């Protein structure tokens, strides 16, 4: 079992209204889903059936030439272990026979967002694709977008941010209410720490968000 480089749910500082606004703009990416050459699905170790059903619905509504599912076997502390890759678990819930015109590709080695893109790029030259739509967890959607931009510098992007359920009342983590729950605050704060750690070391380009990072840093200074 692997230890996470950054805790999944660290304890955040006290969040002011201004800090909430900046963290929302930093972590959440929104560009309405539309038809594209490729639907890129980032790995997830939860919600496979729900994500699969959502993909089915989008395939019925929009046009995608290729669906690229990513994600290897999740083996992190705090994660539910399955001896099957995330992408293959997800594929079980997609009605492939209903979409014979779609090319389904499975990447099953990656263990994180950066590897999702790196290993997927070995299967499909992402830099050659003009229009990409992507699925990712809502709170990680900006980082997912920027990681794609590491290899897709000239592409047009749209996305569907997957809301994560936070409690038995079916409350979900979205850009509008993440700060209302302890889990939501922890997950978004963890994303900020990933921007600082992964972005600064070059896992993804951060030019688009450097201004936000500086503003957040200033607010956090004593």
TrEMBL record:
Organism: Myroides odoratus (Flavobacterium odoratum)
Occurrences of domain DUF218 (ranges): 38-193
Lineage: Bacteria, Pseudomonadati, Bacteroidota, Flavobacteriia, Flavobacteriales
Cited Pfam families: DUF218
Protein name in the entry: YdcF family protein
Gene3D superfamilies to which the protein is assigned, alphabetical: HUPs
